[in-house]
Amino acid sequence: MRLFGVGAGAPDDRALAQGAEHPSAPIPIVGPGVGETIRVPLGETGLETFPLMLGAAEFGWNVDLETSHGILDRYIEFGGNAVHTADGFSGGRSEHIIGQWLRSRGLRDEVVLSARIGAHADNPGLGSVNLVRAVEGSLTRLGTERIDVLYLDATLDATTNLEDTLATVEWLVDAGKVAAVGAFGFAPERLVEARILASAGYPRIEVVDAPYNLIRRQSFEGDLRLVAGAQNLAVTPSHALEHGFLSGRHRNKSVASRGVRGEQLRGNLNRRGIRILRALDQIADELSVPVAAVSIAWLLAQRSIVAPIVNTFAAEHVDELMQGAGVALSRAQLADLARAGT
Questions:
Q1: Measured between alpha carbons, how far is 75 from 95 in angstroms, rounded to an integer?
Q2: CATH, domain 13-239+294-329, list 3.20.20.100, 3.40.50.10610, 3.40.50.360, 3.40.50.2300
Q3: Which pTM was predicted?
């Protein structure tokens, strides 16, 4: 396993203009449990995270308890410290699995635990009553007294009065149940409204989860990125590998059809998707790293991106993903990937 400098944040445009390699500070990783521990600030939350969050969307659905715990163990062995789940993942089973793991390993204080709420069938939306019930439900399933980053999921509820939601979040923060606030599914103008309310004393939204990767770029690379940058929000993009397509494992429609995300994977097997895979292949070969690592490194080279959220099905895949935090892409390699996606 070869690892290079860590891609810990956004590139310096002036350095790139001079033709330098991506100027992230080089921090070597030489193997699980060995070498430097990488931590980057999670925006202005006061929390520090490994520049790759382990997502738990598959836990309790396509990944059983034993395998899920193996994935979590492997991530921690490589120096990871940030785990992301949601009350809607597998009807709450994902949170149960993480809670069991935290208790059995005694790692609660070492892990930055984030949970997205608003999509559980019992407490949907961001209304005050359901919001409190949803957080209490997540805390119970996770077996903890505190959620480090609470992501407010607006995908099912974009109409609830935001002031009421943030007033409820303020109570949750004051009660010690929530440390920092994030957003998922928020339109740029809603983030602006949230910042105006924050200036009046309500809790600030400091982290944003927006689906973003080499395939799926348009929804983020516009007003949303501008607002995130202007507000100094930490962006933790989900779907970092586009359901596994950007790992390079799904090369033809017959293989893709066998996966649990077959329809989504087949939809990317077009000319554009194949061009992107070829560009990833070339760079992965140049750097002697897996394709998935290059995909993660590309994300970390983008402005405002702090820690992509990545889901996986097997512990052995964690090795490939974690390498992405240590790959420094050159200006030419970034340009090749950008051209492939046009």
A1: 17
A2: 3.20.20.100
A3: 0.87
